[in-house]
Amino acid sequence: MRYAKSSSTTSRRNLLMGTAAAGALFAAGCTSNENNDDGDNAEQAANTASDKPGKAVAIGFAGPQADHGWLNAINEQAKRRAKEYKDVTLEATEGSNDTAQQIGQIETLINKKVDVLVILPADGKALTQVGLKAMRAGIPVVNLDRIFASPQAYRCWIGGDNYGMGLNAGRYIGEQLKGKKNAKVIELAGIDNLELTRQRTEGFNDALKNYPNIKKVGRQAAEFTVESGQAKMAQLLQAHSDFDALWNHDDDQGVGAERAIKQAGRDDFLMVGGAGAKRAMDAIKADNSVLKATVLYPPTMAASAIDLARALGQGKGVGGLAELEIPASLTLYSAVVTKDNVDEYLPTGFS
Amino acid sequence: MAPAPPDPRPLLTMSAITKSFPGVRALDGVDLDVEAGEVHCLLGQNGAGKSTLIKVVAGAHQPDSGEILWKGTPVTLKSPVAAMRLGIATIYQELDLVEGLSVAENVFLGHEMATGGFVRSRAARTATAALLTRLGHPEIDPGRLVGDLSAAGQQIVSMARALSHDVQLIVMDEPSAALDPDEVDNLFRIVGDLTAAGVAVVYISHRLEEIRRIGDRVTVLKDGRAAARGLAARTTPTREIVALMTGRDVEYAFPRRTTAAPIATATPVLRLDNLGRAGEFEPIDLEVAPGEIVGLAGLVGSGRSEILETVYGARRPTSGRVLVDGRPLRTGSVTAAVRAGLGLAPEERKAQALLMLESVTRNVSVSSLTRFSRGGWVDRGAERAAARRCVRDLSLHPDDPERPVRTLSGGNQQKAVLARWLLRGCRVLLLDEPTRGVDVGARAELYAVIRRLADDGMAVLLVSSELPEVLGLADRVLVLREGRVVHTAPARDLDEYSVLDLVVTPLPT
Amino acid sequence: MLNQPGGRPRPAAPAEVPEPTATLTKESLRGTSADRPKTGGRSAHDRLWALADLRNLSLVGVLAVLIAVGGFTKPDEFLSTDNLQLVLTQASVIGVVTVGVTFVITSGGIDLSVGAMVALASVWATTLATQDYGLGGILLCAVLVGLGCGLVNGVLIAYGGMVPFIATLAMLASARGLALQISDGKTQVVTVDQVLDLGLPDSYILGIPPLVMIFAAVTVVGWLVLNRTTFGRRTVAIGGNAEAARLAGIDVKRQRLMLYLLSGLCCGVAAFMLVVLTGSGQNTNGNLYELDAIAAAIIGGTLLSGGRGTITGSVLGVLVFTTITNLFALNNLQSDVQQIAKGAIIVAAVLVQKGRSTP
């Protein structure tokens, strides 16, 4: 699926309307600026991006090292999505957690003159400069999840909602424990130095404030790894012989947490996960463990980012909205996956 | 102000200095006075307190009690920097140079010539070159790395560093130990220059003849006290000095062979067959019989130590081979050499032979562990018993094999090394400077031990810088010069003068 | 004087003594029972031991304080069998790694690759292909991977002349990379029941978790090897003075190779234990084990420069760290406080030792 790089052309009429593939959270369609020349908004719908091949777009993709289930899913989603479009060439770099290395990789992509960049920075703040550089070079940047320090460094940001994740987890638990007096909740957080962990905890705490009968009695931070999940959960279980609900920030460390729960022989509480691993969804569907729900932090955002990049490269907007342009930022909803709706989300689960 | 008259007070007066370490009273009320412009020699056995005393002078140790006067004024030398500020410099036996820095950088280490934090390296090099010229070594490049210099060269750098300060007292701890005779002469010339300029030198050496040549007064230390002060260095009889050091009359005596077995007829245990190492020594043939001590005489750099290390497998020969009992050794393997029955007492005891953190027992048993083990399991009872026996056999003092080896004097540390090979049951003993850093009294004991080991059937190959030692101890002597054996003769047919003549006479071309 | 009468041969003397020279009779070399040192002669030895014990004692003291604090703040949760099992279980994986690291440090080396080796071994041992072979396959695979990495480390260091720091740093990077490549960044969940059951309470024998038993066994064997065998002696000897050890006839290179093999073996065993504990293999396993293990060994009293090592101290060090984590978690203190305390304890322990060792 190698396509020649193409310079921006102006006319992009006659593009067919298409619907977003399953898993994309919004329908991709577009109107180009040029479409406005017609002055005919009714045509807008007919000029949205579709699955049918359009102008060839070279998309550069730079992500961190996929040493974690979720990040791995991000890479896969991006690559799979790009493959679905015959008009998209994806130039994906080796994932790197090293800021300097990632900057170098992105600069290479800029020099190669890709049409659009999708960047999931190892460190959003540290990579802001290279984002600015790309934008100045006329390459629109889709900033994926970890946000750059300056809005000038990206054309569009798309990412998850960490605060919303905590909020929805808290709400779900609150509803489940409604009417129960002196209900106790504990939290198994992710890496404490990360801002996202603090945001998740904040959302969780804010949600719980709505339920005066619930008290958060314990919290420990693991490291998004199975090993730390097991270790910290074992300690939490030892510290709290009796509680009603547990929110675990991350399904990957949840493997360890559930192992610790099994080792402690406990099943007297409900557990809510985070991120949306396939394994967790399978367990929710089977309904034979303490895990009753998980709050999404959808890796499908990478696929959506490819959609956005393609639309940007082809000079179109998003369908389904009245806007002529692609929005500057898109915050995804952290849905709560339970037994009732798990079938709907299972295809997006990552392993 | 009128010009000050010559100060009648001594430069440095130390009185009733005491210093204790856990379990040891290193200094027990030492007195010492040093006049400006004199060479004051400090004598004493190892453990007499010399090292501790000079460390007090250098500010490296704080005395527990006692008084130090500098030009009549009480002072506390609370750090080496404080001592340096007064004008006291110390040249330690273990040179304290930074090998990765250049000569000039070493000389001005800690008091760099700098402007606003930037080192003026050109000025430092010029100044260093001047100092080196003054020391008789203008050929040393101030920009060279110290690690690339010979031991003698490093000594010169050390001295240049001392002189880079405005120095009034220099302490030299066995400065001649690593030097060739030429270098020693140069050293004495420098000492003479310094004293002529009014600088006092405190000189420590085990070599009495040096003290005779340059010393003015002698202070003898024994058991942490001054046994005698202010002796005339040139005229006090040797006997008297040795007696003061040891508390008994010690002959600088070499034991005679006790077994009558004729060496000539015995089958050689060690044979060097055309053994050579290009650039270090020329191929050599040699046979050593059980009970025989063969001495290698020559200057530093004549290839003596290199021969020993090549025989031992620590260096790989470029020609020839080593045979023990007629069987050739795998070359370049110490393990093979030890297995075949070789043992080495290396020149640098602390760096090359001893496990300083360990007890005497463990130092003795390290080469014989398999003897006390079954299936890798060490029988510590048997190990201790055997080590104890060897320690007793060699009259190691103190008679406690569980003591950490670092608490022993140099002579007893050497005995621990010999005990290692005794326990191993080795057949060929290679000795490199066996009495370096060992005091006179203990030397005689070591000589007796070495002779006895030979009499009991070991073949001994001995290297020493001290000619009397080689001539007195060995049965046969090989004289080396520039990597070549220039003469071989029974020791009784040689004397110091004739050997020295062979060693220094230019080779016929 | 050298040829002292030997007395009767000691019965326990090794059967095969290399033929000694004429220097000493066999009997005098072996010594007799009468030569066995009596109490008086061992006093210095005892003092040495007392010193070693004293160093451990300071850690025992720290541990006692921690237990007292735990008993005071959370009597019900802390002072319970469950919690003892928990603390020991959590200590066991890193404990086994630390035993191996203690040997390497005692020999004057360093092994920065332990965490990466644990990760690689745990990932390799939990691939679907390996899991087909069941418990035995997983264990064997973990151990072989550990030994393989140790072999590479050892050959590079002993025979390739590489500095241990660099060689094991390279191994750290490449083993982690390989672990990532094999697992593709995914968590490999174990489905072999025999393995999973080992980590569950039903498999506890007399209340002792199997993992803790492995830890205890490794500790005892490690102690014996370091203190009672020729291997241990040689380890200490090359750590104290490698040149002297070489000139004393010890095959230093071979010994070094064996030491890194040993460290790899411990990592393999630890990886298996981690698989049992977490029921999975992941390339992020063993994160920062190298620092935890080195820290535990050092606060235990093993010299970073080599020449002195103590398994007891290392295990105490691990227990101190694990107990702190437990104590803090029980009191709901967060990781920031835990990290600060960990740092403070490392500094304090090393200062205490320094105070003891300098006169």
Automatic annotation (TrEMBL), chain A:
<dbReference type="InterPro" id="IPR006311">
    <property type="entry name" value="TAT_signal"/>
</dbReference>
<comment type="similarity">
    <text>Belongs to the bacterial solute-binding protein 2 family.</text>
</comment>
<feature type="signal peptide">
    <location>
        <begin position="1"/>
        <end position="27"/>
    </location>
</feature>
<protein>
    <submittedName>
        <fullName>Substrate-binding domain-containing protein</fullName>
    </submittedName>
</protein>
<dbReference type="Pfam" id="PF13407">
    <property type="entry name" value="Peripla_BP_4"/>
</dbReference>
<dbReference type="GO" id="GO:0030313">
    <property type="term" value="C:cell envelope"/>
</dbReference>
<dbReference type="InterPro" id="IPR025997">
    <property type="entry name" value="SBP_2_dom"/>
</dbReference>
<keyword id="KW-0732">Signal</keyword>
<dbReference type="InterPro" id="IPR028082">
    <property type="entry name" value="Peripla_BP_I"/>
</dbReference>
<dbReference type="GO" id="GO:0030246">
    <property type="term" value="F:carbohydrate binding"/>
</dbReference>
<feature type="domain" description="Periplasmic binding protein">
    <location>
        <begin position="59"/>
        <end position="316"/>
    </location>
</feature>
TrEMBL record, chain B:
<protein>
    <submittedName>
        <fullName>Sugar ABC transporter ATP-binding protein</fullName>
    </submittedName>
</protein>
<keyword id="KW-0067">ATP-binding</keyword>
<dbReference type="InterPro" id="IPR017871">
    <property type="entry name" value="ABC_transporter-like_CS"/>
</dbReference>
<dbReference type="InterPro" id="IPR050107">
    <property type="entry name" value="ABC_carbohydrate_import_ATPase"/>
</dbReference>
<dbReference type="GO" id="GO:0005524">
    <property type="term" value="F:ATP binding"/>
</dbReference>
<feature type="domain" description="ABC transporter">
    <location>
        <begin position="264"/>
        <end position="507"/>
    </location>
</feature>
<keyword id="KW-0813">Transport</keyword>
<keyword id="KW-0547">Nucleotide-binding</keyword>
<dbReference type="GO" id="GO:0016887">
    <property type="term" value="F:ATP hydrolysis activity"/>
</dbReference>
<dbReference type="InterPro" id="IPR003439">
    <property type="entry name" value="ABC_transporter-like_ATP-bd"/>
</dbReference>
<dbReference type="Pfam" id="PF00005">
    <property type="entry name" value="ABC_tran"/>
</dbReference>
<keyword id="KW-0677">Repeat</keyword>
<feature type="domain" description="ABC transporter">
    <location>
        <begin position="12"/>
        <end position="248"/>
    </location>
</feature>
<dbReference type="InterPro" id="IPR003593">
    <property type="entry name" value="AAA+_ATPase"/>
</dbReference>
<dbReference type="InterPro" id="IPR027417">
    <property type="entry name" value="P-loop_NTPase"/>
</dbReference>
